[in-house]
Amino acid sequence: MYDAIVIGGGPGGYVCAIRLSQLGRKVALVEKEYLGGTCTNWGCIPTKAMLTSAHLFSEIKDKSKRLGIDVSDLNYRLDGIMSHMNRTVTTSRKGIELLLKKNGVDFFKDKALVKDPHSVLLEKDNSLLETKNIVLANGSEPSMFHPFSNVEGIWTSNDVFKLNEMPSSLAIVGGGVIGVEFATFFSTFGVKTTVIELAEHILPYEDTDVAEEIKKALKKKAVTVLEKTKVVSVEKLDKGYLLNTAGEEETTIEAEKLLVAVGRRAVLSDDIKNLGVEIGRGVVTDGHMRTSVPDVYAIGDIRAGIMLAHVASYEGIVAAHNIAGEDLEMDYSAVPSIIFSSPEVASTGLRESDLKGRSDVVVSRFPLSANGRARTILESSGFAKILAEHETGKVLGMSIVSPSATDLIMEAVIAVKNGLTVEQLENSIHPHPTLSETVLGALEGVEGKSIHI
């Protein structure tokens, strides 16, 4: 009899299982395919491995001459890029397996079928495991719908990681995080790339000024960006695809490859539906990660909430502590959102678009072009933006467009999570010369006292 069985070995599931074991509980983890889930195998890790190659290529191509470095015959090898990606993925998988072993988690590579809230059938092994609690961490899959679902050969994000030849041209449907990151990768290596976004602007969950900065960066890479545009039909050609779009103007786009990157949907198998848990877009839980069925918890993408690996991991931590008899509740107020575009994007807390005419909030921006460290690395596109409560100075949110924005955002996460004020951050000495001083400049600007602009 297990204290808990966790179904799914992604960033939510394996973290939950390890923490349960650390809390002295007997736990099993069941994963039908690869440890690490979407993040390690078809998401965060392989994408960032590929983008690392793209960013290095861009740095050499765009900056070497100005930095006094002579480079001739610059080229790339796709097989080398993909080998780096595959090594990174394999190492991550093996690392997770080692962590499970080290922490005494029983790992079953099998398909789990939930029979009831206290028993799970291992399909291949045909054995029944009994448990006091079940944690559903079954994850998500790429969304596909009409008119794309009936056309052969269209890529989802999963298919890009099987790449063995660069296409001459690529149309990407969806200008969110996935679409922008892949547009950055392919355009860097000379692929004629078009991004088609239905919303008002690309990166629709970020502020307009953030999206505009990234749109400018993509256009410098010769990416065509179509916003407020819908694909109404798709035709498969002998060598590629023909897309008809409608928006401010009707457009016809021809591309060798077509990638649909409009997000992901929860994996809701029949055994989960038959379990009787409440289902909306995904499995519904309370803040303790409990479902409507006693002793059954759900974490990560199966909830169809904030579909981010780091959110899934913390939901796994919360579920584990509650199963262990503690009282821990999720707090989504300071979730960092990160995008590995070029420059990078990171945000947390409130966006400017959330303010809806509030007069009690001060918005302060500081340009990257005024930062000394940025000048040394030949970067000028971007900014840091602070949203702070006028009366108290409390930091409500931050957005950063900059190299290393995905690392710089942690200062804001800590501030928003803990209710810190602009004064507290400003009085914490920021090292010089660093990109973190862009954040300092925005903090100073809240009271109109920026020194360097």
Automatic annotation (TrEMBL):
<feature type="active site" description="Proton acceptor">
    <location>
        <position position="432"/>
    </location>
</feature>
<comment type="similarity">
    <text>Belongs to the class-I pyridine nucleotide-disulfide oxidoreductase family.</text>
</comment>
<dbReference type="GO" id="GO:0005737">
    <property type="term" value="C:cytoplasm"/>
</dbReference>
<dbReference type="InterPro" id="IPR016156">
    <property type="entry name" value="FAD/NAD-linked_Rdtase_dimer_sf"/>
</dbReference>
<feature type="binding site">
    <location>
        <position position="197"/>
    </location>
    <ligand>
        <name>NAD(+)</name>
    </ligand>
</feature>
<keyword id="KW-0285">Flavoprotein</keyword>
<feature type="binding site">
    <location>
        <position position="301"/>
    </location>
    <ligand>
        <name>FAD</name>
    </ligand>
</feature>
<keyword id="KW-0547">Nucleotide-binding</keyword>
<feature type="disulfide bond" description="Redox-active">
    <location>
        <begin position="39"/>
        <end position="44"/>
    </location>
</feature>
<keyword id="KW-0676">Redox-active center</keyword>
<dbReference type="InterPro" id="IPR050151">
    <property type="entry name" value="Class-I_Pyr_Nuc-Dis_Oxidored"/>
</dbReference>
<dbReference type="GO" id="GO:0004148">
    <property type="term" value="F:dihydrolipoyl dehydrogenase (NADH) activity"/>
</dbReference>
<dbReference type="Pfam" id="PF07992">
    <property type="entry name" value="Pyr_redox_2"/>
</dbReference>
<dbReference type="Pfam" id="PF02852">
    <property type="entry name" value="Pyr_redox_dim"/>
</dbReference>
<feature type="binding site">
    <location>
        <position position="48"/>
    </location>
    <ligand>
        <name>FAD</name>
    </ligand>
</feature>
<dbReference type="InterPro" id="IPR001100">
    <property type="entry name" value="Pyr_nuc-diS_OxRdtase"/>
</dbReference>
<feature type="domain" description="Pyridine nucleotide-disulphide oxidoreductase dimerisation">
    <location>
        <begin position="335"/>
        <end position="439"/>
    </location>
</feature>
<dbReference type="InterPro" id="IPR006258">
    <property type="entry name" value="Lipoamide_DH"/>
</dbReference>
<protein>
    <recommendedName>
        <fullName>Dihydrolipoyl dehydrogenase</fullName>
        <ecNumber>1.8.1.4</ecNumber>
    </recommendedName>
</protein>
<dbReference type="GO" id="GO:0050660">
    <property type="term" value="F:flavin adenine dinucleotide binding"/>
</dbReference>
<feature type="binding site">
    <location>
        <position position="263"/>
    </location>
    <ligand>
        <name>NAD(+)</name>
    </ligand>
</feature>
<dbReference type="InterPro" id="IPR036188">
    <property type="entry name" value="FAD/NAD-bd_sf"/>
</dbReference>
<dbReference type="InterPro" id="IPR023753">
    <property type="entry name" value="FAD/NAD-binding_dom"/>
</dbReference>
<dbReference type="GO" id="GO:0006103">
    <property type="term" value="P:2-oxoglutarate metabolic process"/>
</dbReference>
<feature type="binding site">
    <location>
        <begin position="307"/>
        <end position="310"/>
    </location>
    <ligand>
        <name>FAD</name>
    </ligand>
</feature>
<feature type="domain" description="FAD/NAD(P)-binding">
    <location>
        <begin position="2"/>
        <end position="316"/>
    </location>
</feature>
<feature type="binding site">
    <location>
        <begin position="174"/>
        <end position="181"/>
    </location>
    <ligand>
        <name>NAD(+)</name>
    </ligand>
</feature>
<keyword id="KW-0274">FAD</keyword>
<keyword id="KW-0520">NAD</keyword>
<keyword id="KW-0560">Oxidoreductase</keyword>
<dbReference type="InterPro" id="IPR004099">
    <property type="entry name" value="Pyr_nucl-diS_OxRdtase_dimer"/>
</dbReference>
